[in-house]
Amino acid sequence: MGVGWRRILGPAAAALLVAAAGGASAQSLLHTMFQDHAVLQRERPVPVWGQAQPGEQVTVEFAGKSASATADAQGRWRAELPATPAGGPFVLRARAGGRTQSVSDVLVGDVWLCSGQSNMQMRVKFVSNAENELREANHPNIRLFQVDQYASSKPLTDFAPDKARPSWNAVTPQTIGEFSAACYFFARELQKTVNVPQGLVHASWGGSTIQTWLTEPTLRQLGYGAAVDALQQYRTDPAGAGRTWGKAFEGWWRKNYPTAGTPWLASDNAGWKTAPEGFGAWETWGDPDLVGFDGLAWLRTTVDLTAAQARQRASLELGAVADADITWINGVPIGSDRMWGPERRYQIPKGVLKAGRNTITMGVFNAWNNGGLLSSRDKQLLRVANQPVPLNGAWSYKIGAKGNSAVPFPPWDALFGIAVARNGMIEPIGPYAARGLLWYQGESNTARPLEYGPMLQGLMRDFRATQGRDIDVLVVQLAAFGSRASQPMNNGWTIVREQQRRVVAADPHAGLVITTDIGDPTDVHPTQKPELGRRLARAARHVSYGEAISPSGPVAARAEGGGGVVQVKFSDVTGKLLTYSSNIAIGFELCGGEAAGSCAFVEGRVISPNIVRLNVPHMPQPKLVRFCWADSPICNLYDESGLPAGPFEIPVQ
Fold first, then answer.
1. How confident is the prediction for the chain on average, in pLDDT?
2. Which of 100, 349, 538, 603 has its CA 20 to 30 A from that of 341?
3. Which intervals hold domain Sialate O-acetylesterase (predicted)?
C-alpha cells in the first residue's frame, strides 16, 4: 500500500481490514505466522495464537507437547508451548469446537527478524555474483517469510488483506531472488557453525526513517506526543487531521522562510512564472534556475466552477508527481503524498470548492532529478459528481526551498511519518518468538542525526517487548557512501554511525557490524552483501552463541594523552593490529573540541598488538580522537581476523 492521505490505511479501510481479518480467522484457528514450512524458536517457550469462537477451548499440539487456551469475547486466544530443542519436521495442530487445523513441515531452530530500509531490502538477485548465488541456493533448513510493505495508521493484528498472504518457503533458486540479501547471506553463513534450522522474517522499506518503525508509546517518550495525537486523529477523522497537518506545514514554512510569502494563498502573487504548456519535469522547462534543481517548488493553477458544481462531491486528480507533494485548494490543505510516481487523487472536503475561480496550489518536493508533475495534461482534472472538469488553465510556478532540507511530512507518511510501518508490518508478526533482530537503517535519519541514538534504543525496547526480553540485536553501521574527504569533516552520516556505535556498546545483548570498507562512494546500495552476511553471522556467533571471538574487528577502548602523543588502546583484537598498504595507520584525527575546524589529520603507528600511537600536531591539548570520520573514509587499521576497526569518537583522558 502506498503513502499519503489517500493511500495510508484510513478509518474506512481499517474497518474493512478488521472485517476481512475476522473472516480469515473464522476459517483458520491459527494466525498467519503459523503455516507449512515455518520455523519455531528452539529452547524457549513459544507463544501460539489465533482466532476461534468466543469462549471456545483451543488445544495446541506440537512435538509431543500440548497447551490450551480459552478464546476471549472477541474470539482471540493465545497458548504457550513448552520449550522444544532444535529438530523436525513436526506437525502443529490446533483443535477447537470439532475443528482441526494442521500445519506441516514445521522445523524448530532459530528465528531472526530482519528490518530496516533499502540496504536490508536489497534483494539477492542484485548482489555481486548474483547468477552463481541464485544457482547454488538450495538450503532446505533455511526458511523465508516475506512481509509486504504496508503502512497503517493503527496497529494491525494480522497482515493486510489486500496484499498476497505471506507464507513460509524453503530456500531454493526460485524462492531466494526476491528476498533480502543481507538476511539470507547471514543465515547461510551462520549455518556453517550453528547447525540448526534458521527462520528469517523480513520486513523492511527502502527510504524509511526509524520513526516509522517505532511504537506510539515509545514515540511519546521521545517527544513525539503531538505527532502521535495527530496520527490517532487521522484514524477516525482523516480530513480533520489533514487540515491540522496542513496548518502545521504552513507554520513550518513561515518559521523557516519568513520572507517567502504564503504561496498556498491566492493573494500571494509575487515571483510566479508561467510554466510551459507541455509541463513535464521542471528541469526541461528551459529555466536556468531549474536546471538540476532539487528541493521544494510551488505550482499553481485555477479552475472555474458553477455554483451547482461547487456543491457537488468532488476529487482532484493530478497524475504522477515526483517526489512528494502537499496540495491546497482555495488555501485549504486537501492531500499529501510522499511516494514518487503514483498518480495523485485527493478527495475534496465539503465546502472547499466555491462558485467562480478556484485556486489549486501544490508544494512539490523532489530529492533527485526530474521533479514536478510528470503526467500529460489530460490527467489533470477535477472530478465533480463523477464528471471530469479538465484543468485547462495555465500553470505557474516559483522556487521555494533549494536542497534536500528536512521538509516535514505528515505523521501518517509511510517513510517519513511515525509508527505506520510498525503498525502495518511488525505488529502483525505479533509475539512470534525469535532469537534476534538484524537492523540495517539510518541513511534516512542523517538530516537530524543526534536524535538517532535514543530512537535506536527505543526500537530495541519495542522489539524486545513483543519478541522476548532477551532477544539480541545486530546493528549494521552505515556503510561508506559519498565524496572522499581531503579535510576533517563532521556531518549527519558520521554522527549516525557514532550514535549506532554508542548504543550498541551500552547494550550487552547487541552487536555492531562495521561496513565502512565494503561500501561504495558512488552507490548508497553496496552489492557486497555476501560479505555483510558473513560479518553479521560472526557478530551473532559472539553475541547470541557466546563464541570467544571478537564480534566485528578492533574496538577503541581508551585514549590517553601526554608528552606530545596520544595512545589509543583497542579491545576485541584478534591476534594483533595491522595496517594495510602502509606502516602508518590512516584515518585518525585529533580534535581540540567539537567546533568546526578544531580537528586535524594525524599519523598513527601501531606500537603494540593493541595500541596505536598518535603524534599531537601544533594544537592545544587534544580533547577527542576520531577515526574513519567521513562519508567515505579511507582507513587501513585491521586485525588478523581481516576485519577493520570501525569509526569512533572518544575523549582523550
1. 93
2. 349
3. 109-232, 433-540
Alpha helices, DSSP H only, in 489-620? 492-505, 529-543
Q: What single DSSP character describes residue 283?
A: G
The pLDDT value given to residue 322: 87
* pLDDT, tens only, 247-305: 899 999 999 999 999 999 999 999 999 999 878 899 999 999 999 898 899 999 999 99
Those residues with Cβ within 8 angstroms of residue 39's Cβ, 6 or more apart along the chain or in another chain: 106, 107, 108, 109, 110, 111, 143, 168, 197, 198, 199
Q: pLDDT at position 339, please? A: 66
Its pTM stands at 0.90
Which residue ranges of the chain lie beneath pLDDT 70? Answer: 1-27, 339-341, 404-406
| CA neighbours closer than 13 Å in the CB half-sphere of residue 250 | 18
Instruction: Please answer whether residues 601 and 625 qualify as being in contact, where contact means their C-beta atoms are separated by less than 8 angstroms.
Output: no
Question: Would residue 553 be called left, alpha or beta, if left means φ above 0 and alpha means ψ between -120 and 50 degrees?
Answer: left
Contact present, 197 and 39 (Cβ < 8 Å): yes
CATH assignment of 267-402, given 3.40.50.2000, 2.60.120.260, 3.30.460.10, 3.50.50.60?
2.60.120.260
Type of residue at 316: L
Q: Are strands 343-348 and 585-591 parallel, antiparallel or unpaired?
A: unpaired
3-state SS string for 305-337: ECHHHHCCCEEEEEEEEECEEEEEECCEEEEEE
Give the pLDDT confidence score for residue 19 in this predicted structure: 37
CB 418, CB 228: distance < 8 Å: yes
Size of the chain, expressed as the number of residues it contains = 653
- Residues with Cβ < 8 Å from 328, sequence gap 6 or more? 246, 264, 334, 359, 360, 361, 362
Assigned fold of 11-216+418-543:
Rossmann fold (3.40.50)
What are the phi and psi torsion angles at 317 (to 5°)? Answer: -115, 130
Q: For residue 323, say if its preceding peptide bond is cis, omega within 30 degrees of 0.
A: yes
**In terms of C-beta density within 10 A (0-12 exposed, 13-18 middle, 19 or more buried), how is residue 441 classed?**
buried
